[in-house]
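Readers of this paper often ask what the protein records in our data store actually look like. Below, we set out a record of this kind in full and without editing:
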Amino acid sequence: MRVVVEADGGSRGNPGPAGYGAVVKDAETGEVLAERQGGLGVTTNNVAEYTGLVAGLRAAGELGASTVDVRMDSKLVVEQMSGRWKIKHAALQSLAAQARELASSFDRVRYEWVPRARNAHADRLANAAMDTQAGKSPKAEVPARTSAAAPSRWSGAQGTPTRMLLLRHGQTEMSVDGRYSGRGDVPLTEHGRQQAAAVAKRLAGLAGVVLDGVAAPIISSPLTRTRQTAQAVADAIGGRVETHQGLLETNFGEWEGLTFAEAARRDPGPHAEWLRDTSVPPPGGESFDSVYRRLGKVRDELVEGHGGRTIVVVSHVTPIKSLLRMGLDAGASLFFRLHLDLASLSIVEFYPDGNASVRLVNDISHLG
């Protein structure tokens, strides 16, 4: 009999209260054949992930399986069990040895990494185990025998969301002077570099930014000020910066480099109209509506490419406002009413069923 084992584990604190989950499915029909879950006290994510694997393999053996396809969203476990990465920690060595002993009873075991969104059933079991361990009632909106992910408690959103940590770049000379700074490529000031280091340290301490030793993807606008801010994050979490043209700031056209007052004096009529109507572009520039449409495509690309993961998005005021507007399903007036500080952090989650949730807006507590 050929089965699929999906396994997961988590720790709320890393180390912290931890739990594991595993599900065994018929490889042909997808029918759920067994589920396993349990609390582990206080331990790490990696230990919880390995424990989920051991539980899943043990359940597959009890069912009389001959061939097992293991699917996990832990890159570390998959690479180590496949023999491509060394196992340095004693606790993981012991658990890996248990897993290998169980695997030796099958004709074949294959390990495959999958995005978190495709491991939602095991993730739900692990979280239910942690809830039970903490004395909470497990979330029961989805029956225990279904492979669907549990919905968000208040919105009814289904599936595992793509969590975007939206980071505005640090200070530049243009921002010191209050000048329109769109496509002009200016670097961070010394204070801006300090701001970038502070927010990078903040992100390094957030849950989900580094999972199983793998850093969250960091996607940045290609301009120097955002790339410098993104690199500070990469240095803090051990990641790599990718750039995306779609994350560029608004093209302010002929107002680039001018202050608010200078632009108003130069073009009083167009400037006043621009402040009232998001479809109006600056002379030779780009309207807020155009930026919003551009960011809609960016959001879709990021969700498709990083579905179910936490990602860091380093950009500018208008692109970040656009993503928050999508998360809130708000009107265009948000562009005029929402303030975003330099080096601020906002968080929005986009679910695979089209729902969204804004978790944080313009947090600068790390700059205090």
About this structure: DSSP finds twelve helices and 13 strands in the chain. The chain has two domains: 2-133, 162-367. Residues 138-151 have pLDDT under 50 and may be disordered.
